[in-house]
Structures are given as C-alpha cells and as structure tokens.
Design goal:
With 648 residues, the protein is an alpha+beta fold. Helix content is 66%, strand content 9%. It has a 9-stranded mixed beta sheet with strand order 5-6-4-7-3-2-8-1-9.
C-alpha cells in the first residue's frame, strides 16, 4: 500500500472516529464562506451606504475566528498525534523514515481539511441564503431565491483554511520528524505539565481560588464599572486557580468530610473527574473564559440590535419630520423642496408649547433618572394637533374633553406617570387626567415632541402658553429616498451656517435603513464570533470525552464484575458527564450576566424596552448558548454511552 493510499484510508477513519470535530470544521468553512459571501454580494452592499463598513467588520471578526479555529485544529492535531503515537511509531519500526511518517500525518489531516472545506462551501451556500434573507428583511426588501456562487468568497475561505492547517500541522510535523521511536511510542502517556505542584501549596491555592471566586462574584454584582473590572480579574484568577488545583482540593475536602466520600457514587464520580482535570486544568480554565466571551458576544449583539431598533422606531414614526430650534418659523426652503420633489399625502404643521411649571417633570425626576435637555417646564400639545398626528402615524384615535388632559410618554415613563397627578392647572384652567398613551411619537430629542413625555390639552389652553418650538410631520405616498433626504439635510446645514440655528430633519426610510445597516454591520460579526467560540470550545470538550472511551469501557466493565447494575452505571456516567460540562459554564455565567445587564442598561432611557429589555436579553443570550451547547453535549453523551456501558 502506497503512502498516499494509506493516508487517505487513515483520513477516512479519522473523520469517522472524530465525527463531531469533522462536522465543526465543516461548519467553520460554511460560516467563513457565508459571511464573506455577504461582503462580495453587490446586491447586499448596494442596500445602504452604511453597508460599506460591513467588509471591515467581517474581516476583523474573521481574523479572530481564524485564530480560534486554528487553535481547534492545532489542539485536535496534537490530540490525534497523542492517541496515534504508537501507530506512527510502528510505521517507523517497520522501515519508514520520520519524514515519511510526518508527511503521512500531514496529508491525512490536510485531506480531512480539504473534504471539510468542500462540504463547508456547499453548506455555506445555504447559510448565505439564510443570511441574505435576513439582511433583505431588515431593509424591508422582498427575498427571492437566487443561486449565487461567489468565487471570491471561495478563494478567501480556502486561503483561511490553508493558513489554519499550515499553522496547526506545522508543530505536529516537526515533532514527528524530530522524535525518536521511544519518544513517539510513549507520547500518549505525556500529560499536561503541572503549574502548581501537588501537596499543601496546591490545596492552599484551591482554597484561595474559592475565596477569589466569591469576592469576584460579589464585586461583579455590585454594578460599578471599577468594581466590575476588579471582580472580573478575581474571577479569572479563580478560574485558573480552581481548575489547576481541583485535583488536590477534592481529596482535601473528603479528608475533612469522610462521611461524604462513600455516599452514593461520590467516590467514583469525583475520582474520575479529578483525574481528568489533573491533565487539562489550563485547557478547562481557557474554555471557561471562551464561554464567557461567547455569552458576552451574544449579549452585546442583542444589546446593539435593541439599541438600533429602539432608536429607529422612536424616530421613524412619521415618514418625514422637520423641526426648528426654539419658536421660530420653519424655513420656506423645506416647503418649496417638498412641494417640487416629494409626493406628500398629508402633513401637520404644529407647535410644542410649555406649561406654567415643571410639576410632571419634578415628579419623574423624583422617581427615576431623567434628563430634561431643553425643557424647563412641562411640554404641551394641542389636542387637535395630537389627533391629526395620531392619524398621520396610523394610530387609533382618542378622545379628550374640554376639562381634561392626556399624557403621551415613552414606555419607560408609563409606570411613573400612570394615573397622572390628579387635577392640574394649566393656562388658568383646572384639568383632570383622562388617560396615558405610549406609542412611538418622536420624543427622544429636544426638538421632538417633548423629551420622553408631553401633555395633551384642549386647544385654547395650549394656545395661551408660550411656544417651545415648531415642527412639521409628513406622510408621503412613497418612501423618502436617500437623495431626497440628503437634499433636505443640505438645506438644514445651509440654514445652520447662515442663521446659526439648528433644525432637526428625520426620515423614516433613512432611519430604518440606518438601523438595518448598523444591525448587519455590528450584530452579524458578533454572532459570527460567538458561533465560532462555542463550536470550538464545545468540540474540544467533546473530543476529550470521546477519547476516554476505552478507559471508561474498562472502568465500567470492572464495576459490572463487582456487582454494579447498568442503571447505577448509567447514573454515574450521567453525573460525571454533567459535572464535566457544567464546571466551565458556571463561572462564565457569573462573569457575563452582570456584564450584559450593565451594558443593556447603559443606553439612554426608553430605548431598551420590551424584547430588548436587559432581563430579556440575558435570557435570550443564555437560551441560544445552551441550545447550541446542548446539541454538542447530546452527541457526545450518546456516543459515549453507547460505547462504554456494557450490555447486561
């Protein structure tokens, strides 16, 4: 049998034995192809000028992703070299030279990478269609299936794979070429070098790491930025200290609590677990940190999506909105341009007035953090203008009596203002509270409809109050184009230079396009990174577990002979498995959840609400993480259970 045939046979066997690794490499190729397919798609890049940032963001994320997958391939190659060292040593014993064996091992892994690349590109085309559909939906475009095969995306993906495999296999090839036969044959007995030596020092480190973990958790939950960073550092030190000293810490615990040592299956479970962690402590700590990065990437992506969506929704309630600063009239230049270039279906020109005091504003500030911006008194709107604006925005009509007032507020102020403040005097008239509404109503800016809230009062009451600023809301028969919006912004800029007064110009189409583009540019790369991180770390955990098949089989066969039934063995295996997969996840949750909560609470009030509220974002991030993680756990557990539990 020639070396080429032997390498191909071994490559097929390798792909079969480590199917979960092979599948992950296929997904890696698919992800790389799909995301680069987006940046090489002329259709996608022409959706908005802001999409010009997408190639930079995807390439930056790809560099990190390539390093992550390079670590996976390097780890797997070294792991396979360890497991097959005796086989490779036998090849040398029967007459092959070290360089030939090194070339054989190199060709095997390169063949696996080539198959994964080919299959990944095929799968990547399907994934590209999914991403394309999502992007087009974000921009309100109709998705139609169109087969696209990007040679540029194939070339970039192939280049990444060449870099990954050349880097990963270079070290393994060098080892095989320089090893003596005895070193190669006994290479599988080499464990991870101990950073902390066994004995009293290692147990002391174990206890200290537990203290650091508790202190770090408390600091993280404090919510302050400085204490949060300090807490994260404590938790990182806890991770490495805990996983490196766990093998000594557990025996020390059982020495002090001998009654728990033989309770149930504790001895079997923890003896197996400590033996495992004793050889891969640094790896487990690193995996835990990468899980943290995964959750933070997912959470940050959801936060940015909620931020862009919330801001756009508030600003895009009208097809076109123009407001002046203070009480001056709107420039006729806007009107002239709209009359000649924009198909206006309906419009409302109105004023925002100021009440006599800041009674409602003071009430808000006494309950939550609130920034008044340009308002020193409660903002008011005439009921007739309010009714016309609701119709313009497509909202249900509402009613108001001559002796009442309504409140329109952003969602985050609803609970504070619910019920109003009872009877209030405005413009010399005593008015009773008659309801509150919370639809999007351009309330985020000083030249919007109040900052977060305004009062709707009878027309004659409002007209007796001073004007804060004037505004124009427009409904068009067709979306305002980028060119039309740019022209209106140019008028605004020329007026600012000439009159030193700033106007606000907002287009629904422009805001929605900007939100869609920023979601694609900011959120997609973060989820690209998160997928790469969780696939890599979960695969390494699975490879380590599946590689212990023979040892587990021998262990459970011996337990069967000693009288343990299959049900008890299954319970012991599940417990070992659960602890093994839970240990690196728990610290990552402790670190990431407070971080995501603080990040989600950092935007201006009123944006992160509903499905984008901080608590919901944390739940979604955890759900997505555990959904993918559970798939890897299920595959690994099913294979391990089938191979190690003896039939009785």
């Amino acid at each position: 049998m020639t070396l080429s045939k032997l390498s191909m046979r071994n490559a097929k066997r390798q792909a079969g034995d480590y199917l979960i690794y092979f599948a992950t490499i296929i997904m890696a190729a698919a992800l790389l192809y799909a995301f680069h397919g987006l940046i090489f798609s002329q259709e996608i890049m022409e959706l908005s000028r802001s999409m010009a940032l997408l190639p930079t963001m995807v390439i930056m994320a790809s560099i990190v992703v390539v390093c992550i997958f390079g670590w996976l391939v390097s780890y797997a190659a070294n792991f396979m070299l360890t497991r097959r060292s005796r086989e490779l040593g036998l090849y040398i014993l029967i007459g092959l030279e070290n360089r030939q064996v090194a070339r054989l091992f190199f060709q095997e892994n390169l063949a696996v990478g080539g198959w994964a690349l080919a299959m990944g590109i095929l799968l990547g085309n399907l994934l590209f269609q999914i991403l394309r559909a999502i992007v087009l939906t974000l921009f309100g475009q109709l998705y139609r299936f169109t087969f696209v095969f990007s040679l540029k995306a194939v070339g970039v993906t192939a280049l990444y794979f060449v870099l990954i495999y050349l880097y990963a296999l270079k070290r393994s090839r060098k080892k095989i070429r320089t090893f003596k036969i005895c070193e190669l044959i006994y290479y599988d007995r080499k464990n991870e070098e101990e950073v902390i030596h066994t004995g009293r020092k290692r147990r002391w480190i174990f206890g200290l790491s537990i203290v650091l973990g508790a202190v770090g958790t408390v600091l993280l939950l404090a919510g302050d930025v400085f204490t949060g960073v300090l807490g994260a550092l404590c938790v990182i030190m806890f991770l490495y200290g805990f996983f490196l000293s766990f093998a000594s810490g557990v025996p020390a615990f059982f020495d002090k609590h001998p009654g728990k040592k033989y309770k149930g299956q504790n001895l079997l479970v923890f003896r197996t677990l400590t033996a495992k962690l004793g050889t891969m402590g640094i790896t487990m700590a690193t995996i835990s940190l990468l899980f943290t990065a995964t959750l933070i990437s997912e959470g940050a992506g959801l936060v940015f999506h909620g931020l862009f969506k919330g801001r756009a929704a508030e600003k895009a309630c009208f097809d076109l909105y123009v407001a002046s600063e203070r009480e001056r009239e709107l420039s006729e230049e806007y009107m002239d341009y709209m009359k000649e270039n924009i198909s206006v279906e309906d419009s409302v020109l109105y004023n925002i007035y100021l009440g006599e005091d800041a009674r409602f504003m003071d009430h808000i500030e006494s309950h939550i953090v609130y920034y008044q911006y340009s308002y020193n008194q409660d903002p008011l709107m005439r009921y007739s203008d309010y009714a016309a604006l609701r119709s313009l925005a497509g909202y249900a009509p509402t009613e108001l009596s001559q002796e009442g007032y309504l409140i329109h507020s952003m969602v985050y102020l609803e609970e504070v203002l619910k019920g109003g403040l009872g009877a209030t005097v405005i413009g010399g008239a005593s008015l009773e509270f008659e309801g509150i509404h919370t639809e999007y109503f351009m309330q985020s800016y000083g030249t919007g409809n109040g900052h977060g809230y305004f009062l709707v009062v009878p027309d004659e009451v409002a007209e007796s109050c001073p004007i804060h600023h004037r505004a124009l809301a427009v409904r068009t028969t067709a979306p305002v184009t980028e060119e039309q919006y740019d022209a209106l912004c140019a008028i605004r800029d020329s007026l600012e230079l000439r009159d030193k007064m700033y106007d606000q110009v907002t287009s629904k189409a422009a805001e929605e396009a900007e939100a869609a583009a920023m979601t694609a540019v900011g959120v997609f790369p973060l989820y690209f990174l998160a997928l790469a991180l969780i696939m890599t770390t979960a695969t390494i955990l699975a490879i380590q577990q599946l590689a212990e098949t023979q040892r587990y089989r021998t262990q459970f066969e011996l337990l069967r002979k000693l009288g343990m039934d299959r049900k008890e063995m299954g319970k012991a295996l599940r417990t070992q498995f659960a602890l093994y997969y839970t240990m690196p996840v728990v610290p990552s949750i402790v670190i990431s959840v407070p971080f995501i909560l603080n990040l989600a609470k950092s935007p201006e009030p009123g944006v992160m609400v509903g499905m984008s509220s901080p608590e919901v974002i944390v739940c979604i991030a955890l759900a997505v993480f555990f959904l993918i993680y559970a798939m890897y756990i299920l595959i690994a557990y099913t294979g391990l259970k089938r191979n190690v539990l003896p039939e009785i």
